[in-house]
Give the backbone structure.
Amino acid sequence: MEEEKWRYLQSRQTLREHPFHSNVPLLGPLIAWFRECWNSVSTRWYVRALIEQQNAFNAAVVAHLRTYEDRLLNLQAQIDVLKQTTDSEGLNLQAQIDVLKQTTDSEGLNLQAQIDVLKQTTDSEGWLIQQDRQQTALIHDLAELTTQLALKSRALSDLEQRLAHLEGTQPPAQEAV
Amino acid sequence: MKHLPRIALFSPLPPSQTGIADYCAELLPELSKHLNITIFTDEPAIVDEPLRRRFPVYETGSYAPRRWDFDLALYHMGNSAFHDAMYRVFLRYPGVVVLHDYGLLQFMAYRTFSQGDLIGYLREFGYALGVEGVYSLRDSLMHSRPYAFTASLNNRLLDLSLGLIVHSQYTRNQVWQHSPRLPVEVIRAPITQGHIAHPYQVPGWPADAVILASVGQVTAAKQLDQALRAFKRLLETAPQARYLVVGGWLPAEVNPPLLIEQLGLGDTVHCTERIENIPEFVDWVATADIVVNLRNPTVGETSAAALRAMAAGRPLIVSDHGWYAELPEDSCIKVPPADEEALYVAMRRLVSEPALRQAMGARAAHHAAEMHSPASAAEAYARFIGQVLSNLDRRLIERSR
């Protein structure tokens, strides 16, 4: 709260008895004196007690307000400090996030490189396996052909023997296949 | 002039300790009636004398310069290290494959990862599952879980094969999901009849003991722990029951003596070492009254031990999936995989009902004789190989037109 307002509150916190006066020419002071006397007789002791009670209450209210004002100021100061700290740590966190992001990007690239290498390895191993299977299939086909050739060779040999028998000659020596 | 098809047959053979070696040895005499067979195996010098007398036997790696002498190569492929050398030949000279195990993960891991060839292992995962398979394997290896996969890793083999012989509808369906156009023939695994079994008497066991048995080399997948826990419960109501573990075990995966000790089973369980020859093995199988043949997980394998048990007239308790699910219902009790309660119930039923055991055993023996004879298997082999060759010939003619 502004200091001026505090001063205003402090100046108004104490009630004072109202002084009697009269604007009547010549008789005015007499009238005022009479009123004063009458007031003293009829209401002063009663009203003065009320004024004192109100003054005490006002003083207590002003004092409490002062206390709350002090607490508010203190809290504001703490908030300001916290805010500064948060801003500072926020910057720090942002820096850390930036670093992490850079690291992640870097490791991501690294992982991607490793995946690429693995993929190439897998491809080459897959290729080797494919070659192995194809070679096996060729060996199988070759074995079939070899067997067929052996059968034909034997049939040919039989035919030559029969022919030699028919011609009364010896069969030619079988050539190695 | 009609020639028998000239076949280069690749397989481990006795004395190699693998069921596929025994399988081939039993099938070869019948097969030779339909096919002109030359054997390629890793160690020709140690192959049993009767086979060497009967068939030309060469070292696996010597096939390349001889390949023109044959119409077709036939590879017996399984999920073990015994097939490494032949697989290398197969990769260059594919032919028809007898796929004894649908899943080949352990085999691939053996021939690559276990030899320090991580790239080779990655390559197989890449071939089978694509780039995702490669990355899955990398993740798994980083957590030291190289076998934490259900991948079959048989894709390359299926792609190369000119034809495929399998032993179950289950495996054929699996194959056709990947290779719907691949010629696939289901031929029941052959098992030899006629061996007269001489059951053993385990010292200290009562004469009226009802004997259950797990037969064949024990691995983790054969669920011996579940079987023995169910057996322990069984002893409460059937104290005369006993349990045989026949054929040794894989120490890296299981420890039966420790398991027996932990369960407090004492001398109610008897373990044998690995059995070196089939007659002795069959004698042990015949010692049992009930054969428990569990497998979980299954890699689409066929159990020769289960077939020998059937041939010996023994009822089976098997896991209800894969090849085992195709066994005849009247010869075995099928329990859901990993269902210990169902296993216990099946054990209790067969132990408490001798007539049921005998009836199921008789039907099992009949089924083995009727459906799993080497003669019928050999005929089916020859028929399928003939189809593969004639199809190739026909396609050549069509291509030349």
About this structure: The interface with chain A takes residues 1, 3, 6, 67-68, 70-72, 91-95, 123, 126-127, 130-131, 134, 156, 159-162, 389, 392-393, 395-396 of chain B (CB under 8 Å). Residues 85 and 289 of chain B are 40 Å apart (CA to CA).
